[in-house]
Amino acid sequence: MAPAPARQWLAPVLLGFTAAALIAGGSAWLADAWTLADTCWAVGTVAAIMPSVAWVVAALRRGKAGVDLIAVLALAGTLATGEYLAGALIALMLATGRWLDAAAERRASHDLRHLLEHAPRSARRRTGGEVRTVPLSEVRVGDLLVVGPGEVVPVDGRIEGHTAVLDESVLTGESLQVERVAGERVRSGGVNAGTAFELRAEATARDSTYAEIVRLAEQVGAEAAPVVRLADRYAAWFLPLSLAVAGLAWLVSGSAVRAVAVLVVATPCPLLLAAPVAIVSGLSRAARQGVVIRDGAALETLGRARTLVLDKTGTLTAGRPRVIDVAAAPGHTPAEVLTLAASVDQFSPHVLAHAITDEARARGLPLVQVDDVTEVPGRGAAGRVDGTAVTVGRRGHDDTPLPGWARAADNRATLDSAAVAWLGKGDTLTGAILLRDPLRHDAPRTLRRLREAGMERLLMLTGDRAEPAREIAAVLGLDDVHARQTPADKVAAVRAERERAVTVMVGDGVNDAPALAAADVGVAMGARGSSASSEAADIVLTTDRVDRLADAAGIAVRARRIAVQSALGGMLLSLAAMAAAAFGLLPPAAGALLQEAIDAAVILNALRALRPDRTALPTIEPATEQLLQRFAAEHDDLRAVIEAVREAADHLTDATGPQALDSVRQIDRLLTDRLLPHELAEEHQLYPALAPALGGPEATATMSRAHTEIHRLARRIATHLQLADANHGRLRDEQLDDLRACLYGLHSVLRLHFAQEEENYFSLAH
Known about the structure:
Keywords: ATP-binding, Cell membrane, Membrane, Metal-binding, Nucleotide-binding, Translocase, Transmembrane, Transmembrane helix. It is a single chain. The chain has five domains: 4-109 and 221-279 and 558-610, no CATH class; 120-210, Calcium-transporting ATPase, cytoplasmic transduction domain A, CATH 2.70.150.10; 291-318 and 440-542, Rossmann fold (3-Layer(aba) Sandwich), CATH 3.40.50.1000; 322-436, Calcium-transporting ATPase, cytoplasmic domain N (3-Layer(aba) Sandwich), CATH 3.40.1110.10; 622-764, Four Helix Bundle (Hemerythrin (Met), subunit A) (Up-down Bundle). Helix content is 58%, strand content 14%. The chain is built from 26 helices and 22 strands. The strands form four sheets. A seven-stranded mixed beta sheet has the order 10-22-21-20-11-18-19, sandwiched between helices. Strand 13 (371-376) and strand 14 (380-385) form a beta hairpin. Helix 4 (84-108) packs parallel to helix 11 (274-288) and helix 16 packs parallel to helix 21.
């Protein structure tokens, strides 16, 4: 087979020449110049023989005797028997198949080539008041760069100055523009969709995200895919079978023309090229989803994988801690606790401090001025607010017993496998902030889709403690979990799984790189993962969404199925045509036309792998996607309401006086003003919009039933308050058990309902 650059020009030239020869011969035949017609057709045949011989020799040098040999024999047979028209048709068929293959490969790899064309080659560097354009190779860490409107972010760095608006669709596959505020890290490859901004370089061009993606894209190809080798194995028996049928037809009938006719219809050179076309099409489709696959072999192997091994942190979880609860001492509020803690922690580089500060800002809490800020590594931060000492972090190692509210918070942290940041004001514990690395919203749906794609065994390897690992495994329905794993342990576990079945490993950290390399297919979370894991991986997810792995698996399964279908289907049609030719029912010229149609059909069928699988995920209209994003944002705002419901129930356990009743009144106001309007809007706006995509209103019926239960419990709580007002503002003893049950029940229903919506609906938004 000719090298790729040669195929690009040889295919159209050969197609043009053979078509011209066939047309010229046809024109001469119509003019009764039969000798000239045969000459034109013979010239076209000879023109096709020469490159065909070169393709056969190239295949033999690689130890393969492909079906190009049948094409050479068929062409030679038509010349020997004087079937010049059949020879010209075979030549046109061969040239058309090669041209179709080249065109399909160009079309299939369009998105991957776009990555290469999109790569930046220069940057604008600011030095003092001067801005100069310099080659990208001269950019160094710490340089201040200017990115103008429409320009590509040249290297990884942090935004300086004002907010930047970026189009990161080349990296992530998502069309929505994103805003990056000052101090936020951005990856190279995004396009500035707003005004010019300044970027402080944090990596050289070679070490930046986009350069790594380009290096992977440059390696993409389908030549080594096992399914292509499967096509070669088909040729290993198809070639002798074709020769045997042709020889038998000649022997039985005594007609060499029949043998030539058999060889003509057994010339499926472009037929078996349909397999790599399908694989390359799958690679292109995956690239559109923000998944860069190193080569066709990785795609094909992913399509037949049966075991999936996952890291926990950064893969199944968000990879960064998040505030899940805020507990306050009597006389204080969660908002006050979070405000003070964030005000002190805003100066700390610690990851938990960032999580606390981010949560306060997300809730719109104004931070207060803090003086004399200090930090002790491993203990926390301290400062003075209005002259009072405030500390945030771990408790001291004294034997002072914890008050009841603090014991409850400490117990919740243990049960939830959460870290605790204690807030001290003076010498008194004032609050506790619970933090945990949360499960990704799209993780449950992703794992369900992977099982549908053929994954039979799902297990998790993590260096974390056993308790949080087992909890996540239980929530996701994993088949096995191994905790406290070292990199060497992970490698051993992956190798053990490979002994049982084709195994995929997914990870994002440096410690995952050896296990990724040990797996049949390694998948790196490249959006925030380490470059080491990306280098070791066969597949890189360029967007921070684990559900892209399910997309890639679905694409791989479909591309492999189409590849095998195209190869086998075309060969079965050729076998039927060979039988007809052997019995003299199909003359060489007609057989050549039939084979042309078969080859074109199977290559076009292989190109179906470029199109999305309509059964994979529901198609969401843009207006519905905006609704999903709106309600997802409201969920984040309403988490404080859910926490307040449980805190009110806790207060009823500790006391039944006016303060406890006030907390219930506050819950009633929050439910009436914020949560219930949100649920009603979901019921009457979001669910009807989702129904067409999900197959009808029954798909959201379970969630509607949850809305009904939420409203029932809210009305019951309101009724308890009316009874208390009728009793001079005091709760009756007989009310307490039921009111506590209502509050705790509402808290549980809301948590489950929010989790189900985020998993089933909000994860549909791109």
